[in-house]
## 1
Amino acid sequence: MRRGARIAAALACAVAPVSAALAAVSCVLTEPVDLPAKPHRHPTILHGAVAPPLSSVVSVVDGTDRQFAVPVQLDDPTQGYAWAVFIDYEPSLGATHSPIQGNTVVGAEGNADIQVINFGVLQSSLGPGCHRIELIVALSFVVPHVADPYGADSVSWFYSPAGDVSGCSIFEGGIGADGAFPPSADASPDGGSSAR
Amino acid sequence: MSAVDPRPELSPRRRPLPRRPAAIAACLAVIACSGAIADPPPAVATVNRCATDGDCAGYGSGTCEAATCAVNVGFDYTLVVSGAAGTDIPGYSVLLRARDIDPRRAAARCGTNLRCGAIPGLSLISGSLGADEATQRQVSRSLHGAAGATVSVPTQVEYRPLVPPRPGDDPTATVLASDVGLPLPSVFGRPISGDAFPSASGKPWGGPGATEAIGWAVSLVSGSSYMRYVMPDPPFDDAYPPVAIRVNIPQSQFVDDDYAYRPVDLSAPQTFDVGSDGASLAGWTVALYDRQSQRRISSIKTLADLPATVVLYTSLVDPATKMELVVAPPRGTIAPELGFPAAPTIPRAQTYPRVGPARHVSGRVLAAPGGDAVPAQLTFRSTEPLTSSIQNSPVRYRATAWADASGDFAIDLFQGVYEVAVAPAGETPYAATLIPRFEVSEDDVQGGKSVSVPLKPSIHGAAAVSDAARSPLAEAVVVASPVPGAFDPDHPLAVLARGAQTTTAADGSFTLPVDPGTYDVWIQPRTGSRFPWVVRTSLPDSKAPIVVSAGHLDVGTIVVPLPVDEGRTLFDSEGRLLQGALIRAFYTVAGRKSPFLIGEAMTDANGKYELYLTPPQP
């Protein structure tokens, strides 16, 4: 045997047990053990692409299912998600305040991870005066307006049919600023007709 | 699996974990061939993909374009582009026709890519609302400006987008986007002070010591048209009325949009004598409103002592407008309002009648049949005189209550007769219902007033793809969307039907419970499938509208054809990639008021979006 061949053979012998051991270790690692589950995360609203934009006031609801469009980023498109729309959500009413619209979307293999939620609001759901329209998206809801422990994301719009937003003065930051809206502003439990 | 399959493939990372023997074999395979690493998961679903035209033979005329079976029969449609932070349209929605997406408008960036274009840019608008001396004298409201000067009035401003009239319509018509269901939202002006105006601009000045904002600034889409509504701020709104005027935005970077009242544009003063049959109306407001749009169209007066003589002005109001006088309580006050429609004139003398205290009314929403409790929203609207003291007094009241999971509701209402719109919570199987007569007597406390709601009727059908085998289309979203109708101010609760969604089963079938009403039915193959959205507007045999009243309605099998590949790359007017923008495609059909939403997508980091469309089927 030539010297080179002898060295090669010796190396092969030396490496073989190591390789085998490594292979064994590898095999153990690829067993179908219970890997830690990927932590769930609630759908995230892509606020910059929400329509109508969150910085504006909605002065008309046309009743169509396409007026409001909310793109959401899904952490796992196979998992599905749920959304709900509330008008003038009043925290003191808690679970008794039902959404006016909503859906549970079943996840699917191969689904894209960005989905767009389209919805509309009937004028008969609002009546005269100013209102707050709110969409909440989560993996699931425990009760209306309360998401599962993975949390939720939400967006709100301010609605004033007369276009006279000065009549709905509780609007932090001013029109065209950050669109922030204080909790339950203009959400009198009866939604009475006094707000012109 | 064939190259064209309506069912999605399992992507590698979604496959079930191998069992033990398979795992060992896989392990050995990895040792033997260290390069055999699984493909990464596909960015989009691997359905409707092809390599050659032959893969699309099952579809007849389909050919393989961009690895997708498609047809090459382009058509024109309208896009609404929204969002896109980091560009010059953050927070805006832009309307453009597909045929106007022209690479020549973005030549520097599109290069040879013909599927490329730019959206219109924005113009910076600054404006102010002025009143000259003659106007101030006419409305008896001095603005304390320099003698002889036009003085600005602090105001809020809303620009509502207009869209071109449809072919066949009056070409001079002013069409609000919202009236035809195109989702182009209003844009509101930001108040700016006099200091913000360039000194040489010649803007009207707010007067010595003025601290109020005296003008506005806003960005609007160049080359577009808007209806501009100026609404003077309190306290100036007691004399100066709102003004609505169409404006066309030129292709300029900076645009002045000033408006000054002219006495000739103001209406003759309309005078009303307001009294009360006992109640104090201090703090109440009096104004004229457009019944259709519910917008205020006159100056607005706040009452103090009664009786009061109120003078109201309007400006540039369309003579066809149906107006009404409204005497409304202050916000937060539970009291009926007085609404007197012009028929054709409004009497000068207006007396607010004695309506008595509110009655506490409670009840329960129940299912019929079955009697289950139903959570719901209840909207009450008075339909007959609320009081017997003045039978013809147009006092009216509207209020909303919520029934909880036990179906219980409670609300304060005034004596009279109401209609009640009951909208069960979306997750319940019960239909929105209009209760035509709900009486509230003179008793202070009234309980046990139950209202019942029936089960929803449903729409049945199936979805399939247009291959030779008519393969069922699973996992598609089915949307039943109420056909938009005009708002009727005399019957504001008449439209109750709400949109509904479900998903097709493995065999393509679907059952979708809906409120009674007239619907269009969309099949939306799941995002990433590369199949287009399809809308059915009529029943397959009779071609009658899809009217759902009771029971089950079968709309047959809705076939999803091959798409037209309408993906593009978009830049803004400054040549920046349009990233993260929401793209919605609309198609107009003759005889329908609103265009159809036929697809939507989002642009990626390269400004590119995938959009596979087909026009609505006749």
## 2
Amino acid sequence: MNDPVLVSARKLQKTFAIGNLEVHALRGIDFELRQGEFAALVGPSGSGKSTLLNLIGALDSISGGELLVLGQDILKLSKEERARLRLSSLGFVFQAFNLVPVLTAVENVEFVLELQGVGAEKRERAMEILSELGLADLADRRPSELSGGQQQRVAVARAVVSRPRLVLADEPTANLDGPNAESLMELMLNLNKRHAMTFLFATHDPRMMNHAGRVVTLTDGVITGNLVR
Amino acid sequence: MRRDFTRLMGRLSVTTRYAVRNLTRNYRRTLLSVAGITIGCSIALINIGMTRGKIEMFIRNVAEGGIGHVRVVPENWIVSHDSGLRLHEWRKILGELRKDPGVAVATPRVRIQGMLAMGTRVCGVLITGVDPLTEPKALRYVRTLESGRYLKPDDSHAMVIGKSTAERLRMGIGDAVVVTVVDTTGATKSDMFDVVGIVNLGNKQLDSMVCQVTLRDAEKLSGLPGVGEISVILKDPGDVNLFRDRVRASLSGGDTAWTWAQISPQSEQAVRINYIFSRIITVILVLVALLGVASSQLTAVLERKRELAMLSALGMGRVSIFRLVFSEALTLGTLSGLATMALAGPITYYLARVGIRILDSGKSLTALGTVVDPVMHGDFGSWFFVYAAILSYLATVVASLYPAWYAVRLDPAETLRMS
């Protein structure tokens, strides 16, 4: 375990205020994620999986403790700096695919490269990753013309096209049937192995857990299990 | 055509393609937004065209009603309005003005207070000595006569008068009238003139102001050589201040030049009030269109909250999100601008060429001492296209500011969690 640490959380807390009520989503967790890991966050609904992913993804601000992502203290970053961190080094895969409906598959992938300031070669790079994921023939289709499985593969292509150091996936197989979920897992695992890309995903799906090299269990905002295979 | 459009879209950035295609998500909303801006901007443009035309007509009427766009006069004339003042080297000034390519016509005048008498009937008039060749080009009232003819350069003791004066004195064409003036020595001086033409402006007040003789006769009557003013009509009245300054710089011997606005401040004020009202109407119309579009754009943003939050999660910064919503507004502005030109263009052009009849034929109306044209024309020119583009873009861009601000302030985690 000499790989560099990508994520380091110490006494990490997150509290949401709902009216006058305070909901403690994370209650001071300690967590580390190293480069090249393929880790699953598991636990029942409301256990804090998505909250932890959002904090690591620099989408949300922490309520207490410390969180370093790729060496950067999330607490000290401004909104713009967090956006830059997400754009340059993090990839996201969402449960509901969240592709832009008016853009084609290749344009959805290209869009991230354009935001990063990639010039003329962005189309070539987008096609390259789509080909790698077996989607080259579907490049010019819009999301509405793709199946759920195909949409999620495009979403993965979008997440990894800029070769981020860390890919965060929130229930990526929740909307997929068995074969599609299995196929997506194999695809992510391939990317993890071939490009040494680090994956951290939240899941309920036992089939996904089986592929994970590490399974972190969250219950009521605290880590209650850390199984390394 | 579809292939050309696809090829064109392929050349645009993904952000621009995204912005353009966003407008196709809900055709009805896009069409309503475009219609709102188009109708608002079209009415505003038609109003601007009519106001410009009305003001242009008014200024022309003021200028060609005797004042001129610019008037060259002796220095103290603006204070004293003394008709006994004379220009220095008026022939040289007149020659130079007539050589100026910006001048449509320059005409000299002499004004004398006098009295006309016919039998036992008498009336006071302001007699104007004119150059018969150029005066009708500068004074619209003497272009058409009810009876008789206009003055000729070699006329002697000939007079053109207004119908109301003719009626008061019960005179007709060919009648002789006694003209009495007070000369420079203070003594009264009389002479006989033949009425050769009668002008009917349909307005007694304006009619009574017309009493013209040749310059030579006026000089003899007053006993003062030279002319009291040179009235200038410009080809482009928009250059009036520049022209006045140029003329002033070339004048010597205490003569100066004044614009119609300086000579008739009440006319200038009327023009300004017209412009202010027109601008207020334009602002109200654009504002109404703008609020409609802002509401529609905000709805479009609210419907895409999750998508915008996702883009933010992918690392799309505030500036990029703002640019995206703004690009949509610019596309909407372009469509609206083209639609505005298509709708308001022919109407404004028609109103400029054909105009609106505001008075029945034979009827007359005066405003601020000028006769109002029976047909009011609008204005149409290159300004129309510039204004159409500015108004459409302004309406859509301002309307998109709040939706864009709302979009950049979305909290991605909160929005994704809630949706």
## 3
Amino acid sequence: MKFWTHVAAIAWKDILSELRTREIITSVLVFAVLILVIFNFTFNADSSLMRQIAPGILWVAFVFSGVLALNRAFIPEKEEGCLDGLMCCPVEREAIYVGKALGSLFFMLLVEVVVLSVFALLFNIAAFQPEIIVVTLLATIGFVAVGTLFSAMAINTRAREMVLPILFLPIITPVIIAAVSAVTLVLDAKSWGDIFSWLVMLIAFDVIFTVVSFMVFPYIIEE
Amino acid sequence: MKPKILLLVSSLLILASLAMVFVFVPTEANQGVIQRIFYFHVPVAWVAFFAFFVTFVAGIVYLVKRNPLWDMMACVSAEIGLVFTTLVLITGSIWGRSFWGIWWTWDARLTSSLVLWLIYIAYFIIRAYISEEERKARFAAVVGIIGFVDVPIVALAIQLAPTAQHPNGEIFHGGVKGLMLVTLLLSIAAFTALYLLFMVVGISIKKDERELAGIKEAMKE
């Protein structure tokens, strides 16, 4: 029980500081909307083609803005010496991982809700279907599970935030494939049964990488 | 094992498998002579995968035991794995050029191999950006573990994806029997021996580097 009190305290600290500074949410949100707008120019496609490629555009926006948000998860911790403080606290290292991950999950979901609305509006697509919401939630959990681990790692290298996308993107390819395929099916008026295998894959990824990251995270922030 | 013995064994095995591939094995009826690259391609892929498995296991053992020898082993094995994955991509491309008429297609196996290659590129980028040996070893171990766990999931996701499905198992069309099977097994043995040789030599180079770094440190003081 004490573990979850610690987790909640760490997550709440992140959410509170974000609500006061609005550093992550503002810039990540603007970045994600910019991706949508830029894709509109680069493809300059008619509406039927746009419908076909829309799921891909949406997930590129989610993935790239996710990298931006996850990078910010540990930069202030490192710069302000907060991580050292956390490590001196009588708190399990795993609790730091779960707390940071929950904080990032909260920010990313907040950004995704807005991006999904903008996406629905700009591309004239019914984006708020229950299937799409579940897929987005599951995929975001997967992003955050590995992303939090890699973000803590990246910040402790010389290249800092440059390292995160290089580590993060190849590892999350299954999530991207599953999410894009599932959303494409849903937009083709398919339902739960048709996206079932993708949902199973997303859940499997989430479970496996939450457990593995949880186990190896203490080795990352050792010193 | 002594590197000299391994050198002898792997040289003999490679010569034998070359003789089998170019002289004795019959030409496959469906694909013609290009199918012979398969006796190179498959063993190389096997070694690459085995090498990453060794990196995965050595990484776990390093995190538990903290003996730098395990990190050397993980690193050398990943180096070999990366080189062999590159060879898999190149030999696969050559085969594809002659059989499909194109160097690259987003076929399930090709794409999985490319993602695998990118994961282990990241493994070495992480190593390059950390100066402290101990932290380098720890982070690399974590990437080696996460990367290896990811590989089957990547392969499964790409397999399930609706895009660009090429007929699977084309190369095994009609099964691998008789002399073809013997040649394949011999090539696998040859490349596995080569892997062991590279491992032994690579680890001894790493040990020397470490010793040298220690001497340099001592001379500074």
